[in-house]
Design brief:
The protein has about 350 residues and is an alpha+beta fold. Strands 1, 2, 3 and 4 form a 4-stranded antiparallel sheet that branches. The protein is rod-shaped and about 235 Å long. The relative contact order is 0.05. InterPro entries: Band_7 (IPR001107), Band_7/SPFH_dom_sf (IPR036013), Flotillin_fam (IPR027705).
Length: about 350
């Protein structure tokens, strides 16, 4: 009897003659579960996975699948495939350690798929994908492993934090050192600039003090010259005053002589002539009178000489007092005397010009 397979199409059949059976080609989602399966270390694990399977469309494989599953429900087909997958999953779990299963689930799933694919392939079934959904145990092995791993991670984290703190401390120390170096260089430059400023200021102060000293010296020299000129003018004034005084004294002497001549000598001569003419007898009396008069004149001369000497002594004392005043009051006294003497000088100059 000839068999014919139609995929996704239609065909004519004879009623009551042709046997028609349908087989779903949709993807089937399976959830294999292996509970308390011991691993290579003897640790019981429970593993759940998800597998996507479908019947292959190739003619030969589709024919094989038809032979295997025609007349069966979808549940029966899934149960058959699921049993095959769980068997291979249990077998592979017994060859691996917990760490290999837990840490590398993708590799574990790939291994299960590669081992189970030939068996389900002989049934015309293709495994589209297989993934491990969950891995757990009832003896807290994974929890302990997680704690150990957590402790390792914490330890590594603490080490990392310590190293980070150490690196941060080193970096901070380096930054502080760089900052101190910069501060030291800055302070050095500031001190150098301050030292240069002080040197320049000292040079400037020296130049200023030199200029002040030169100005003060020039001022004192000019003041000395002015004082010298004032002293020369004063001496000239004193000379003029002395000359005028001498002239006055000479005039006074001439006046005295004239007065003496008028009041004494001429009357004496007249009297002598009178006496000579009147009587020779009175000659002795006249001579005595003349002697007396001469003595009187001598005494007058002595008195005048003493007066002149007193005037000279007074003039010397006046000059000495002037010198004391000049020494005591300095330029102010000299300037005051010069100012007081200017009117006299002016008067004398006017008299001289007249």
């Amino acid at each position: 009897m000839k068999k014919r397979t139609i995929v996704g199409g239609y065909a004519f059949t004879w009623w009551f003659v042709t046997d028609v059976q349908r087989l779903s080609l949709e993807v089937m989602t399976l959830n294999p579960v292996c509970e308390s399966v011991e691993t290579a270390q003897g640790v019981p694990l429970t593993v759940t996975g998800v597998a996507q399977c479908k019947i292959m469309k190739a003619d030969e494989l589709l024919h094989t699948a038809s032979e295997q599953f025609l007349g069966k429900s979808a549940y029966e087909i899934k149960t058959t495939i699921l049993s095959t997958l769980e068997g291979h999953l249990r077998a592979i779990l017994g060859t691996l350690s917990v760490e290999e299963i837990y840490k590398d689930r993708d590799q574990f799933a790939t291994l299960v798929r590669e081992v189970a694919a030939p068996d389900v392939g002989r049934m015309g079934i293709e495994i589209l994908s297989f993934t491990i959904k969950d891995v757990y145990d009832n003896v807290q092995y994974l929890a302990s492993l997680g704690k150990a791993q957590t402790a390792v991670v914490k330890r590594d984290a603490d080490v990392g934090v310590a190293e980070a703190n150490r690196d941060a401390g080193i970096r901070e120390a380096e930054c502080e050192k760089a900052a101190m170096d910069i501060k030291y260089n800055t302070d050095t430059k500031i001190e150098d600039n301050a030292r240069l400023f002080q040197l320049q200021k000292a040079n400037f102060d020296q130049e200023v003090n030199t200029a002040k000293a030169e100005a003060q010296l020039a001022y004192e020299l000019q003041a000395a010259k002015i004082r010298q000129r004032i002293r020369n003018e004063e001496i000239q004034i004193e000379v003029v005053e002395r000359r005028k005084q001498i002239e006055v004294e000479e005039q006074e002497v001439r006046r005295k002589e004239h007065e003496l001549h008028s009041t004494v000598r001429l009357p004496a001569e007249a009297e002598h002539y009178k006496i000579g003419r009147v009587a020779e007898g009175k000659r002795t009396q006249t001579v005595n009178a003349a002697k007396a008069e001469a003595e009187r004149i001598r005494l007058i001369g002595v008195a005048e000489a003493q007066a002149l000497e007193a005037v000279g002594v007074s003039e010397a004392e006046r000059m000495q007092m002037k010198a004391v005043v000049y020494k005591k009051y300095g330029e102010a006294a000299i300037l005051n005397i010069a100012l007081n003497a200017l009117p006299k000088v002016r008067g004398l100059l006017l008299q001289g010009s007249c």
